[in-house]
Design a protein that fits this description.
The protein is an all-beta fold and 146 residues long. It has a domain of 101 residues. The protein is built from no helices and 14 strands. The protein starts with 16 loop residues before the first strand and ends in a 33-residue tail after the last strand.
Amino acid sequence: MNNQNTSARPGTAHTPSIIGADVHIEGNVKTMGELQLDGSITGDLACGSLVMGESGTVDGTIAADNVTVRGTVKGEIRAKSVRLETSAVVEGDVYHESLSVEAGAKLTGRFAHTSGPKAVPATPAKPQQKPAETPSFVEAKKPAAE
């Protein structure tokens, strides 16, 4: 009797999804499993694990548990573990718990260590403007006498 589970349930696949070098996707992509990206995505990408080849490109936010970049990213990367290899080009911020950067990788943006990087909002909220107040060290003008 074969005790192996052969059901095709979401999130249980052991074979990575592959987006070939000749494929361009416009729109958001989401998968629970591993993604091998050699093509290009214009939109946000959410996956369990991402391995981006040298010809791979993403123009949008990447959210994953593990990200390995050999290609080009224009947007944020939010992952528990991020690895930027020599050929990586990233134009955007990288939020991570664990980070590895090989010599030669290019980054235009910031690195920020955070626990739970996928939970951080994709776009930081703008601080609300407060009405102008007189600082406490400046003596407030007294109202004119009536």
